[in-house]
């Protein structure tokens, strides 16, 4: 049975997609079978994992709204052991269309049931909002991994996210846990980053991963080549830290 982990934070640009793609590829590299599920209409996880969005005819939209089978949507990713449920811009309509649909919050959970035995990990990249797409992701997940960017106001907005997590726990998914909090885009040249680390650790304590993701230009280049960092530049700092993170996640069970 796969462990299902949502990568969520309603703030944009905090490193959700970078983390979803690279943690998926690194866990796959460690020999586990991984399914990366793209729940963001921007489809950046899809292209970052090596899938040409223009060539996708059926995407996660069809699974959520049209009840197309997940097995008809899954595609191989750009590394061994990695498969992808792609998203295209079509998904942007789903948030509104789902409102009037029966069991609208559990559609992803129900769809994943068909393949949950085929994978060790299912990683879900969430959009930058707390709407129905993120609710579907949280309802389908065992846990949520929260990337937090090392910048001023790092904790701003997190109470809203945690509140949504509590609501999902209460009404839709009693088992949902906080997998961990990941500090991202640390700029080692400034003291600010270190202050943010202290602040986040004070609040989330042992939930904060030992691995901290620094700013690394190779991480921002890799997506335009459709490659995760371990394929794009295995010797970069970015590859090293995401592999460390993957090991931490796998070790925690
Ligand atoms: P989100 O999915 O939360 O919106 P992204 O993962 O797309 O965030 O990251 C936002 C931007 O920052 C992207 O252009 C990405 O390539 C870049 N980025 C993410 N993490 C890093 C990093 N550690 N170092 C350098 N650039 C990064
Ligand atoms: Mg994203």
Q: Any overview of this molecule?
A:
- The structure is a single chain.
- With 253 residues, the protein is α/β, with parallel strands linked by helices.
- It has one domain (3-251): 3-Layer(aba) Sandwich (Rossmann fold), CATH 3.40.50.300.
- Helices cover 38% and strands 14% of the residues.
- The chain contains 11 helices and 7 strands.
- A 7-stranded mixed β-sheet has the order 3-4-2-5-1-6-7, with helices on both faces.
- Strand 6, helix 7 and strand 7 form a beta-alpha-beta unit.
- It starts with a strand and ends with a helix.
- Bound molecules: adenosine-5'-diphosphate and magnesium ion.
- Magnesium ion is lined by residues 16-17, 40, 44.
- Dimerizes in the presence of ATP but not ADP; ATP-binding is required for double-stranded (ds)DNA-binding. Interacts with DnaA.
Overall pLDDT: 96
* CATH architecture assignment name: 3-Layer(aba) Sandwich
Please give the oligomerization state of what you see. Answer: single chain
Low-pLDDT sequence parts: none
Proportion in helices:
25-40%
Major sheet attributes: 7 strands, mixed
The tally of beta strands, per DSSP, is: 7
CATH topology: Rossmann fold
Report Rg: 17 Å
Give the CATH class: Alpha Beta
- Beta fraction of the residues? 5-15%
SS summary, helix count: 11
What is the approximate shape? Answer: globular
């Amino acid at each position: 049975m796969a462990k299902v982990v949502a990568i969520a934070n309603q703030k944009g640009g905090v490193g959700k997609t970078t983390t979803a793609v690279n943690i998926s590829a690194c866990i796959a590299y460690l020999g586990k079978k991984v399914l990366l599920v793209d729940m963001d209409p921007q489809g950046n996880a899809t292209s970052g994992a090596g899938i040409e969005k223009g060539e996708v005819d059926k995407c996660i939209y069809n699974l959520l709204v049209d009840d197309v089978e997940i097995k008809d949507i899954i595609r191989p990713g750009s590394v061994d052991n990695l498969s992808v449920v792609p998203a295209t811009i079509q998904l942007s309509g789903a948030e509104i269309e789902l409102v009037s649909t029966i069991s609208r919050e559990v559609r992803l959970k129900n769809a994943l049931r068909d393949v949950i035995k085929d994978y060790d990990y299912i990683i879900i990249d969430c959009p930058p909002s707390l709407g129905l797409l993120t609710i579907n992701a949280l309802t389908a997940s065992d846990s949520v991994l929260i990337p937090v960017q090392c910048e001023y106001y790092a904790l701003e907005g997190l109470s809203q996210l945690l509140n949504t997590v509590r609501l999902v726990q209460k009404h839709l998914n009693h088992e949902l846990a906080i997998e961990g909090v990941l500090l991202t885009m640390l700029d080692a040249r400034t003291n600010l980053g270190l202050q943010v680390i202290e602040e986040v650790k004070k609040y989330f304590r042992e939930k904060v991963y030992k691995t901290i993701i620094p700013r690394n230009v190779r991480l921002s280049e890799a997506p335009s080549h459709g490659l995760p960092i371990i394929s794009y530049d295995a010797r970069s700092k970015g590859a090293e830290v995401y592999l460390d993170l993957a090991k931490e996640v796998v070790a925690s069970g």
